[in-house]
Amino acid sequence: MSVERFDRLFIGGEWVAPRAAGRIASIDPSTEDVWAEVASADAADVEDAVAAARAAMAGPWGRTAPTERGALIARFADLVRRDAARLAEIESRDNGKPLRDTLGEVQRAADWLTFFAGAADKVNGEQIPYRPDALAYTRLEPVGVVAAILPWNSPISLASWKLGPGLAAGNAMILKPAEQTPASLLALAALAEEAGFPAGVVNVLPGDGVVGAALSAHPGVAKVSFTGSHETAIRIMQGASANLKRCSFECGGKSPFIVFADADFDRALSVATHSAFRSTGQSCSTASRIFVERPIYERFAAGLAERAKRIRPGPPFDPRTHIGPQTSAEQRDKTEAYIGLGHESGARLLAGGGRPEGLSRGYFVQPTVFADVDNRSRLAQEEIFGPVTAVMPFDGEEEAVSLANDTRYGLVGGLWTRDVSRAHRVAARVESGLVSVNTFRPVHFMLPYGGYKMSGIGRENGFDAIREFTETKTVVIDLSHAIPPDPFAD
Questions:
Q1: Which of 86, 312, 360, 397 makes the best surface tag, with the fewest CB within 10 Å?
Q2: pLDDT digits (tens, 9 = 90+) for 51-61
Q3: DSSP H helical segments within 218-264, as ranges?
Q4: 254 carries an active-site annotation
C-alpha cells in the first residue's frame, strides 16, 4: 500500500514545512502498516503559530463582526459536509474506527459547527441595575489565543466541540492532534482555509508531547482546552500555572449504568451492549460499570454476554464490521493487561477475553464481559479504554447510588426504571455531569457536557461552552455629573 504524505503544518494561513523537518508515522491499526507520514511540529513551530494567532486577534479577526464570524463558521460546516467521505476515510485509517462510525462523526461535526455559527452573534452581556444614576453592563469578550489539544479516539468530532464555540466567541485557535492520529486535522485545516478565515485564526500543529507542553506554558496562549487522560491534564495545568492560563478539561470516566428490576429489560440490555462496546470501548463515556438489581442480575449478565459474542470486530472498511481494532499496540496491550487483572481478581468471565479468531494482524480485542466484579478492584475503578465491561449486582436504591458514586470519575451516568419518582431521586444523587434515564449518553450540541471530580473542569456544548471561551468585562459609567466630596479636604 502506498504511503500518503502530509508534509506541511498549517500556520498563519500558510502550509509550511516544520522547523526541524520532523515526521510522524501514522499506523493503520487494522493492518499494523504505516499508511501516512505527517509533518511534526516542535517548540519553534509553536512560537510561529502563537505569533500568527495573536496577529489575527489584533488584526482582521478582532475586527470581524459577529455575524461575519457566524457566516464563516457556517461556510466551514458546509465544506465539512461536502468532504465528509474523505475526512471519514482519513479518520478510519488513523484510528481504526469503522467507516460508518467515522462518517457519522464527521457529519455530526458539521452539525456542531452549524449550531455555533448561529450562536456567534448571540454572545451577549447584560445590563445590571446597579444605581439609578449609573449605567452598568457586561461584555463577553474572547479570551484570546486558545490551544485545543485533541485525543485520538474522535479527532474531528471533538475538534468541532472546541472550534465551534471558540471561533463563535472570536478566539484564534491552535489545534494539536494526538500523535497516534495526526492526519485528519490537517485535512480539516484545508477546509478552514477554503472557508476564508483570516490568516492565523485556525492553525494545526501535529506533534508529540513537546508541542503540547510548549502550548500549555506559552504566555501568549490564553486558554488550553484539552480532552484526554487526567494524568495529562495535570501536566497541562502545571505548565499553565506559570501565567494562570485558563484551562478546561474533559478527562474520561468510569460510567455507571444502573438497571433497576422494574426497567424495560430488553431495551436496557440493547442499549447496554451498544454503550459498553461502541468505538471498541475507546470512549470516555462507555458503560464500563453495569450495576443490575439482584432479581434480574443473572439474566441480564447472561444476555449481555450473549450479545457481546455476536459483535463482529474487523477492518474499518468492511461493511460487516461492528467494531474496529484498538487504535494502537500500546492501547491493545493495556486492555489485555486489564483483562488479566480481571482474571486475577476472581471476576467471572462471561464473554471474550482474547483476540478474535481470523484476525492475525491488527490491534483487535474481543468484546469482553466480566461478572461478579469487585467495585473497588482496578477493573472497576480505572479507565480501560477498551471493549471490557464489568457487571455487578446491587440490592436497592441506596446501594446502587453508593456503588455508582464510589469512583474518582464523574462524567456520565445512566439509570433504567419505570418509577418516575425514583428516576428523579437517583438522577439528583449520581455524581456525574450528565445523567440519563432510560437512555444513555445523549450527547448533542445543545446539551452541556463535562465532568465532576477527576472527569474534568468546565463544560463543552450548549451556551455553557461559549462562556468557557469568553472573559466577562464589567463596564460602569457614572451618569450623575455630581462632584463627589473631597475625602482629603480639611
A1: 360
A2: 999 999 999 99
A3: 230-240
A4: no
